[in-house]
């Protein structure tokens, strides 16, 4: 930065004001032709081992498609996707490229962008030590940009991504359509930037891992493009492992089983297991969840009263609540109910995205948590940072609201999964079977009550791939934090190092 705030230099490509797509009638204004709206700025990041110079290209990319039918025509604009592309200027044009996105559905990619991957990061603080306003940005010495170029992209209707004029956004609000849109953007970016010889990596968080797995399969199946690696941070690959009975058919006990170790970790974070380590508690909970617990639930009404009471007491001791409450729940503890119950005596609720967080409850008798303290407490710092950063440091301006969380994407369509579980584990497995060089990195937060680590462990261990591939091509790491484990400084540093190793092939 020349004065601490302005870019060293910048170039701009903005939308044309005229250039109508067709002749305008008398007295009518010509409709503007959609064009890219991009700003390119130059930057230097001072790292402990030297300077990293890079450009940031920020803005909306117009995507075009050939119209349906037999008549050939030039591609028609259908989407304007917002992305920030970071490219190191002195490290060659065959560096790896990481395409990153968050999930939701409906979340922008501000979280991975300013929390973990980008060259600048938000100063949010952590539970018990949150940074108060005014919020700020810090240099990110663990940025993935040290090892790969980075493209952070927002899904349709999130961030600044919108349909092209005259197009409808809801055609992209579904698993398959969203997958196809992201794959098309990646293909377009590689062509525009002449990066077809660069190793390609995908990185997703939360539903972004669902997206990453589906996009990887789309790239392989449709375009014959082989990803070098897929990073899955707080993954969900099979929704039947985490969605409870009120939304899925009764009789699916898998979520109750898979959430139990996460409940035990959250109980530990709030002092319910004095004198014991987190790993000791988690190991005990996982052993119970993998052996006794499924057998107990499978018995249903066949379980006698004495055994049911003993099971309730064992579960209660593990997850830090009363045995009567567990017994009334028929040994099946739903996560929103648990987060309202575990700190009820203290008059507080625990966080879903990160169970280490808590906040006072407005209703001491609430059956379910009313809000998520973790997103409530972390979100404002990210909102302030992204809006300031895009305009002041990256030079991008628009009159559109940057949608951190967009309700406009709902209802999200899973129409292709009628009468079966929503899952992309089969997509991920197919990529691994088709492309022998593709590797997978998986990051789990112990205190993540949105996508519990035990559910992911289970799905990964049952992928239809050779056992040797599971052991040699999938790396799994754990962090003492939640869904956004980078809110916890030691976990952020460790995860950044692990992702760097992954991209370097170590």
Structural account:
- It is a single chain.
- With 506 residues, the chain is α/β, with parallel strands linked by helices.
- It has helices at residues 110-117, 175-192, 207-223, 254-269, 278-290, 292-299, 305-319, 323-328, 335-341, 373-393, 425-434, 453-461, 467-473, 489-504, and strands spanning 10-13, 37-47, 50-65, 76-88, 97-101, 120-123, 125-126, 129-130, 136-139, 149-153, 162-163, 200-205, 229-233, 348-350, 358-360, 439-445, 474-479.
- The strands form four sheets. Strands 1, 2, 3, 4, 5, 10, 11, 12, 13, 16 and 17 form an eleven-stranded mixed sheet that branches.
- The chain has two domains: 39-234 and 381-445 and 477-504, Alpha/Beta hydrolase fold, catalytic domain (Rossmann fold); 241-374, no CATH class.
- It is built from 14 helices and 17 strands.
- The two termini are 34 Å apart.
- GO terms for molecular function: serine-type carboxypeptidase activity.
- Residues 1-35 are annotated as: Disordered.
- Keywords: Carboxypeptidase, Hydrolase, Protease.
- Residues 10-29 have a biased composition (Low complexity).
């Amino acid at each position: 930065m020349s004065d601490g705030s302005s870019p060293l230099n910048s170039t701009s490509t903005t939308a044309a004001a005229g250039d109508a797509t067709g002749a305008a009638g008398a007295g009518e204004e010509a409709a503007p032709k959609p064009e890219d709206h991009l700003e390119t700025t130059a930057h230097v990041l001072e790292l402990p081992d030297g300077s990293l110079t890079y450009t940031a290209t920020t803005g909306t990319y117009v995507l075009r498609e050939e119209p349906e039918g037999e008549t050939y025509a030039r591609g028609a604009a259908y989407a304007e996707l917002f992305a920030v592309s970071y490219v190191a200027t002195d490290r060659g044009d065959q560096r790896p490229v990481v395409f990153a996105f968050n999930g939701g559905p409906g979340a922008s990619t501000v979280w991975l962008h300013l929390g973990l991957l980008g060259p600048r990061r938000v100063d949010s603080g952590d539970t018990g030590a949150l940074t108060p306003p005014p919020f700020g940005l810090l240099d990110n010495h663990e940025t993935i940009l040290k090892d790969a170029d980075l493209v952070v992209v927002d899904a349709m209707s999130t961030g600044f991504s919108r349909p092209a004029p005259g197009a409808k956004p809801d055609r992209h609000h579904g698993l398959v359509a969203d997958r196809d849109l992201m794959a098309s953007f990646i293909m377009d970016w590689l062509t525009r930037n002449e990066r077809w010889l660069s190793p390609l990596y995908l990185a997703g968080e939360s539903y972004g891992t669902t997206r990453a797995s589906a996009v990887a399969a789309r790239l392989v199946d449709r375009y014959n493009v082989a990803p070098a690696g897929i990073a899955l941070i707080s993954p969900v690959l099979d929704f039947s492992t985490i969605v409870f009975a009120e939304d899925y058919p009764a009789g699916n006990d898998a979520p109750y089983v898979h959430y139990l170790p996460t409940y035990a970790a959250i109980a530990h974070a709030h002092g319910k297991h004095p004198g014991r380590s987190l790993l000791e508690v988690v190991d005990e909970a996982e052993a119970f969840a993998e052996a006794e617990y499924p057998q107990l639930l499978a018995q249903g009404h066949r379980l006698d009263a004495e055994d049911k009471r003993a099971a309730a007491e064992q579960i209660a001791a593990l997850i830090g609540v009363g045995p009567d409450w567990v017994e009334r729940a028929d040994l099946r503890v739903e996560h929103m109910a648990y987060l309202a119950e575990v700190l009820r005596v203290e008059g507080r609720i625990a966080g879903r995205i990160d169970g280490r967080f808590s906040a006072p409850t407005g209703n001491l008798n609430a059956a379910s948590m009313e809000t998520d303290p973790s997103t409530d407490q972390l979100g404002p710092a990210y909102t302030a940072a992204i809006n300031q950063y895009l305009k002041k440091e990256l030079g991008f301006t628009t009159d559109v609201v940057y949608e951190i969380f967009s309700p406009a994407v709902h209802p999200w369509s899973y129409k292709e999964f009628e009468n079966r579980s929503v899952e992309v584990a089969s997509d991920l497995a197919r990529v691994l079977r088709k492309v022998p060089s593709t590797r997978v990195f998986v990051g789990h937060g112990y205190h993540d009550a949105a996508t519990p680590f035990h559910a992911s462990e289970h799905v990964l261990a049952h992928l239809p791939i050779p056992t040797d591939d599971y052991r040699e091509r999938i790396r799994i790491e754990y962090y003492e934090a939640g869904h956004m484990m980078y809110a916890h400084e030691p976990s952020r540093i460790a995860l950044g190092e692990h992702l760097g190793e992954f991209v370097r092939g170590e």
